[in-house]
Amino acid sequence: MFEVTVEYTFASGHALRGYKGKCENVHGHNYKLQVTVEGERLNSIGLLMDFVELRAAIRSLAERLDHRFLNDLAPFDRINPSAENLALYFGQELEGKIAAQGLRLQAVKVWESDTTSATYRPDAAGAR
């Protein structure tokens, strides 16, 4: 089994609905996103997946959120823009692109700070 991991950063603001504490107020984070892809075989030039291609797929999603207020953007206008839901969002959006190459999304990790993160791992059946 091989794994390829790419990290990406972006900044956004949010407010957690229904949360009792500071995070119910508008605030922002410099998020770090880590995406890991896995597969059994390397391609003809010895790559599992091109880092550049994975980074471009992540960037296309993150740029939509960068320097924006997440609560105003779908799907976070309906669901809380928590680190967990951000990890799920990126995972669900990337899974199809990765599967089309015969690979599997292993994990998406989102850091809100240097010491706090949430991870989404799709189950083997692909259920969420």
Sum up the structure in keywords.
alpha+beta, 128 residues, single chain, Tetrahydropterin Synthase, Chain A, 4 strands
CATH architecture label name: 2-Layer Sandwich
Instruction: Classify the beta-strand content into a percent band.
Output: 25-35%
Q: Please report the first level of CATH classification, the CATH class.
A: Alpha Beta
SS class: alpha+beta
Q: Helical content, roughly?
A: 25-40%
- N-to-C SSE string, H for helix and E for strand: EEHHEE
* Backbone CA Rg: 15 Å
What's the helix and strand layout?
Layout lengths: L1 E13 L12 E13 L11 H15 L17 H17 L4 E8 L5 E4 L8
Helix pairs in contact: 1-2
Describe this structure as you would to a colleague.
- The protein is α+β, with helices and mostly antiparallel strands and 128 residues long.
- It has a single domain, classed as 6-pyruvoyl tetrahydropterin synthase/QueD (Tetrahydropterin Synthase, Chain A).
- The protein contains two helices and four strands; from the N terminus they run E-E-H-H-E-E.
- It has a four-stranded antiparallel beta sheet with strand order 1-2-3-4, covered by helices on one side.
- A hairpin with a 5-residue loop joins strand 3 and strand 4.
- It starts with a strand and ends in an 8-residue tail after the last strand.
